[in-house]
Amino acid sequence: MTTEQLIGSISPDRPLLVIAVKEEAQFLPGGLPVLITGIGKVHTTLALMTALAGGVHPSSLVNLGTAGALRPGLSGVHEVSTVIQHDLDTDLLLRLTGETYGAPVELPHTGGVTLASGDSFVADGVLKDSLAARAHLVDMEGYAVAATAQRLGLPARLVKIVSDDADEGATKSWPVTVAECARALADWVAREL
């Protein structure tokens, strides 16, 4: 069973909004195509490559979604400048193979926010503290969108809203805050796109 869904049609004169789950997309204004990918880097990459396999590419990819705050005081909407994979040991792989796999992806936004993406929902204070040394926010899809855009030569923007504190309370707070977060993301789209 696939969770991906393309709403609307991709065209070269409009961005494609890329979102993990329908709950995050529930208040988006109409007019722009939306790709719901499912959760995680693999689902996101597969959904994007499938949607773009027809050869028609959008003007850009805009990844919208919720994220956990890794540092105290972070709230609201943030546009990401750098995205890393927190669950791929790029240093070890470089030592083993002499090749760089999963290098950080730099984005044109200059706000200084680093996002760590991985295929696990971070709800552990110890892991959170470890990740906070390298990033401000954590999600499960951003790296896949940025890397796919980079591979295809498309501009990308990653826009994340803090939904939880990426600690032991995250699994309880995300379901409570997701609707409010979806409204804020829809407001950002209406203002910025």
Short description:
By secondary structure, the chain is α/β, with parallel strands linked by helices.
Notable features of this structure?
Nucleosidase, Rossmann fold, alpha/beta, 10-stranded mixed β-sheet, single chain, Nucleoside_phosphorylase_d, 6 helices, 193 residues
Structure description:
The chain has 193 residues and is of the alpha/beta class. It has a single domain (5-192), classed as Rossmann fold. The chain is built from six helices and ten strands, in the order ββαβαβββαββαβαβα. Strands 1, 2, 3, 4, 5, 6, 7, 8, 9 and 10 form a ten-stranded mixed sheet that branches. Helix 2 (41-52) packs parallel to helix 5 (142-152). The longest helix has 23 residues, at 170-192. The model has no long low-confidence stretch (mean pLDDT 93). It holds the Pfam family PNP_UDP_1. This is Nucleosidase. InterPro entries: Nucleoside_phosphorylase_d, Nucleoside_phosphorylase_sf. It comes from Kineosporia mesophila.
Helix-strand layout with pairing:
Elements: E1 5-7, E2 16-19, H1 22-25, E3 34-36, H2 41-52, E4 61-69, E5 77-79, E6 82-85, H3 90-97, E7 105-106, E8 114-117, H4 125-132, E9 137-139, H5 142-152, E10 156-164, H6 170-192
Parallel strand pairs: 2-3, 2-4, 4-10, 6-8, 8-9
Antiparallel strand pairs: 1-3, 4-9, 5-10, 6-7
User: What structural class do the secondary elements suggest?
Assistant: alpha/beta
Rounded mean pLDDT is 93
CATH domain class: Alpha Beta
Main sheet specs: 10 strands, mixed
CATH H level: which superfamily?
Nucleoside phosphorylase domain
Distance between the termini: 32 Å
| Named CATH topology | Rossmann fold
Order of helices and strands: EEHEHEEEHEEHEHEH
Quaternary organization: single chain
For the record, the CATH architecture stands as 3-Layer(aba) Sandwich
Rounded to an integer in angstroms, the radius of gyration calculated over CA atoms is 16 Å
What overall form do the CA principal axes indicate?
globular
**Would you count the extended β strands for me?**
10
User: What's the domain count?
Assistant: 1
Count of separate DSSP helical elements: 6
Low-confidence stretches: none
Content of β-strand: 15-25%
| Percent of residues in helices | 25-40%
